[in-house]
Amino acid sequence: MHRWSELFIPTLREAPADAEVASHKFLVRSGYIRQLMAGVYSFLFLGNRSFRKIETIVREEMDKIGQEFFLPALHPLSLWEASSRWPLMGDNLFRLKDRKGTDLALGMTEEEVMTDIARKELRSYKQLPQIWYQIAPKFRDEPRPRSGLLRVRQFMMKDSYSFDIDGAGLEVSYRKHYDAYCRIFDRCGLKYMVVDADSGAMGGKESHEFMVRTPAGEDQIVSCDGCNYAANMEKAASKLEVVEDLWPEGDGKPLEVHTPGQKTIEDVAKFLGVSPKNKIKTLALMADEKNAKTGKTKSRAIVVLMRGDHQLNEAKLNAAVAVATRPMEEPEIEALFNSPAGYLGPVGIGWAKDLKQDVDHPVLLVDKALEGRTNLIAGANKKDYHLKNLTPGKDFQPTMYADLRSVTAGEACPNCGKALRIDTAVEIGHIFKLGYRYSESMGARVLDKNGKEVMPIMGCYGIGIERILTAAIEQSNDNDGFWLPASIAPFEIVVTPTNVKDETVFNAALDVARNLESAGFDVILDDRDERPGVKFKDADLVGIPFRVTVGKKVTEGTVEVVLRSTREMRDVTITAVVNYFQGALRAKA
RNA sequence: CGGGGCGUAGCGCAGCCUGGUAGCGCACCUGCCUUGGGCGCAGGGGGUCGUAGGUUCAAAUCCUAUCGCCCCGACCA
Fold first, then answer.
1. What is the distance in angstroms measured between the alpha-carbon CA of A554 and the sugar C1' of B12?
2. Closest C-alpha among A132, A136, A146, A67 to residue A107
């Protein structure tokens, strides 16, 4: 029996000043965690209890589809240098040296180690499929840890890796994970959604993210209440309404118009009496690429054209050009356009014909929303002038068209046409179809039925354990604290005698707690010699979903059961308490 | 890495501008009191003022450097 008076549960009346989001404030106030340094936290008693319960759920569900391993956090740096991902991970990888001076790294993900095992051990299609997983610490030297446990430098991740003989097999492994993840998050009591995602630095094709909507999150997700469409911003699309193009003016050729002092899209549109939808927004960017051999940095201009009222999505841009970009500086703008900012446009510049082949010319990327449009208006590359009658493909030649636009809330769902919504969310899980990337680069091969050497196809799958706890708190809190689903709460029930010096009351509380415990419930008895208010406040704070208050009514044989989430309160006879919780807690589990 | 903010007792803060005794609330300890929502009274313990250097008779306070933490951005399976 856990007695509060004997435990270390350092609750605080006030949150630390540097905590901003609810989960961070409450995790500290409730004595779950304490900070050691930026992005690194210690878990105390209550926090660890909740953490272990989450891990147990993850482990139980993963054991149904795979096998648990335990891989080292300490890696030889050479493993990472061998990987083609090394440049991508960069400074996020923690590095250190051993006494002999050998370079080591702390593991931030384990594709390389898992694939290393696979290439050494897997020989035959008969050994496939395999799903290997672990629940282990990961280390990432984040440039900016934040929001308590939301983005940290050391965290616990369930990561798994599948090896299959072919795409159909991968499909099965992927689906198994998808289903297992749903079971895990369901059991953890999270309201989550699954979104189409970009595979980013992981490589590979298909990918889904498991997201929980909360303003504390760092990701933007687009979803539709009318159907099940959901995607993250990097991937989201929408149906655009048809825009009426302008009529050509004059002979239909590019026509210079005087627009003195009119620099912004809004200004120019108003000045010329047209909609921003008929304007071209010209974004001047630079990509700095370091040559691996010479170490020299070469810059290449990347100019992006968007519809006047549209916003560039940088993730889509990155995906399109595969390099990082930055805004051009004033001299660079002058050098390329021969014009001050505010009057930039695509006409009169020799654009690259191909992104990869034609590296000596600047790149002109045009958003798909402008494809097929006519008689648009853009800057004339001349101070105080714009050009009318511009038609892409005719008056200027794009290097390529690409989807570069950020979806905005209210646009039409690509599936059903209803208005899309955009929410911030936190990512709790992510699954990827990796394909052959690691099998190929690291040389994993097995023999197929015909004795032919083939590469196993891989998938990788991750769940952030801290984030399950964080998301659960973010979705269930009020001014006084938070409440966790019973499955992941440090205790299911707190038994609170209002006065421990009153023997009748205290003994009744002890009995109730013992009975609940022997019936299999996870109970803590708040036997502290404190005033009831203090104990109620603490009980409200620390995330326990049920409270049994044992007070004066014991003389009538009843106690109160309080549901933390709604504060709904009901009298239950002492003899019926166990029975009550068997209904309330075990029935749905 | 760019921009901003903050480091004074476990937590929240004042004091700094205008240099001279380090202070408040909560928490903690002792006693009394109280016992259904952080109760009351009395007494008490605890701080190299992030660190280093400088200016000064004298530095929490002024100057310089540095470290740390937080927020916005960049970045981020």
1. 39
2. A136
Which residues 138 to 197 of A reach strand B, CB within 7 A? 138, 140, 142-147, 151, 157, 159
Task: For residue A97, give the amino acid letter.
Answer: K
Q: Do the domain assignments include residue A99?
A: no
Which CATH number characterizes residue A304's domain? 3.90.960.10
Closest nucleotide to A464: CA versus each C1': B77
CA-to-CA dists, residue A465 to A152, A211, A471, A557, angstroms: 12, 13, 10, 42
Domain boundary among A402, A437, A466: A402
According to the 3-state scheme, what is the secondary structure of A330-392? HHHHHHHHCCCCCCCCCCCCCCCCCCCCCCCCCEEEEEHHHCCCCCEEEECCCCCEEEEEECE
Query: Among A47-61, A159-173, A188-202, which stretch is predicted with the lowest mean pLDDT?
Result: A188-202
Cβ of residue A398 near strand B, that is under 7 Å?
Answer: no
The ipTM, to two decimals, is: 0.94
Which positions 516-535 on chain A have a beta carbon less than 7 angstroms from any atom of strand B?
529-534
What's the total number of domains in chain A? 3
The last residue of one of the domains, among A432, A447, A474, is A474
Tell me the CA–C1' distance in angstroms for A37 and B7: 14
Q: Are residues A434 and A553 in the same domain?
A: no
Quick one: A397 and A428 in the same domain? no
Cα–Cα distance measured from residue A572 to residue A579, given in angstroms and rounded to the nearest whole number: 10
Determine if strand B comes within 7 Å of the CB of A12: yes
Q: Give residue A446's domain range.
A: 15-72+108-237+421-474
Same domain membership, residue A496 and residue A469: no
Kindly state whether residue A1 falls inside one of the protein's structural domains: no
Same domain, A52 and A197: yes
A38 touches strand B (CB under 7 A): yes
From the Cβ of A435, is strand B under 7 Å away? no
Residue A539 burial (CB < 10 Å; 0-12/13-18/19+)? buried
Same domain, A58 and A177: yes
- Mean per-residue pLDDT for A575-585? 95
Give the pLDDT confidence of A229-263 residue by residue, as tens digits: 998 888 888 888 888 999 998 888 899 999 998 87
Most confident by average pLDDT, A285-294, A317-326, A530-539 = A530-539
Q: Which residues pair with A416 in a beta bridge?
A: none
Instruction: Say which range, A83-97, A163-177, A242-256, A459-473, has the weakest mean pLDDT.
Output: A83-97
A515 and A388 part of one domain: no
Nucleotides of B under 7 A from a protein CB: 1-2, 5-6, 11-13, 25-27, 34-39, 68-77
Residue A35 beta carbon within 7 A of nucleic strand B: yes
Instruction: Determine, yes or no, domain membership for A330.
Output: yes
Instruction: List, for residues A467-521, the tens digit of each pLDDT value.
Output: 999 999 999 999 999 999 999 999 999 999 999 999 999 999 999 999 999 999 9
- Asked whether residue A387 falls in the same domain as residue A303, the answer is yes
Residues A67 and A203 in one domain: yes
Specify if A8 maps to a domain. Answer: no
Q: Is the CB of A134 under 7 A from strand B?
A: no
What letter would DSSP give residue A412? B
Q: In sequence order, what are the beta bridge partners of A405?
A: A312
